[in-house]
Design goal:
By secondary structure, the protein is α+β, with helices and mostly antiparallel strands. It has one domain: Cytochrome Bc1 Complex, Chain A, domain 1, CATH 3.30.830.10. It has ten helices and four strands, in the order βααββαααααβααα. The radius of gyration is 19 Å and the shape is globular. About 25% of the residues are buried. The model has no long low-confidence stretch (mean pLDDT about 95).
Length: about 210
């Protein structure tokens, strides 16, 4: 394959943290997800380094599990070093647009206002919140926080929970087209076979 699929993965806080969960909604909406997000606009539209790009700050489904940060870039193999560097730079030094942050806040509020939990989702939502250690709908915490959230709050979240992380890099692509010297320069490289990635049954399927 000519394209390189790249993911940067970082394990964060070891247990469910309500503040992280709440502010990650704003972080993801503003920074990492969708065509209007900062990551997509910077990596794909402005710098033309990727077919697709996104960042997701995920919260665990259970109280004793960890938060994770994942950053994805799909790019041409020869652009891989530049794409990784660009992603690293933008994660470490998040551009701040007050207008776009305000739009992200409004988007989250409207989504909560217009969505309804019905039928069997009532049980599953309750069960997830219970596993996280809460007896109420956590959307209320998100909604209430968005009422007072500011660009400084988002920047503080980024500084506390995102900046300075260490990452594991997952790269999928043709070895002949991948710059292995570059990968070796950013960390220890472990190569996996198709069987290890996809399983024997999938690889050997007639």
């Amino acid at each position: 394959m000519v394209q390189a699929e790249i993911m940067l993965m970082s394990k964060g806080t070891e247990k469910f943290n309500l503040d992280e969960y709440v502010m990650s909604e704003l972080y993801n909406t503003y920074f990492g997800g969708g065509l209007s997000s900062i990551v997509f606009q910077e990596i794909r539209e402005s710098r033309a380094l990727a077919y697709s790009a996104n960042v997701g700050y995920s919260s665990p489904m259970k109280a004793e599990e960890a938060h994770y940060l994942r950053a994805y870039v799909g790019t041409q193999a020869d652009k891989m070093p530049d794409a990784i560097k660009a992603m690293q730079e933008i994660i470490e030094d998040m551009p701040v647009s007050e207008k776009q942050i305000a739009q992200a806040i409004e988007s989250i509020e409207k989504k909560i206002e217009t969505s309804r939990i019905t039928k069997d989702n009532i049980y599953w939502t309750y069960r997830t919140n219970k596993q996280r250690g809460f007896e109420h709908d956590l959307r209320k915490d998100v909604y209430d926080r968005m009422k007072t959230a500011t660009p400084d709050d988002l920047k503080a979240f980024q500084e506390k929970y995102v900046k300075g992380r260490k990452y594991t890099y997952l790269v999928l692509g043709s070895k002949e087209n991948i710059n292995m010297d570059y990968l070796n320069s950013i960390g220890k490289v472990t190569q996996l076979s198709l069987n290890e990635v996809f399983g024997d049954e999938a690889v050997n399927k007639p």
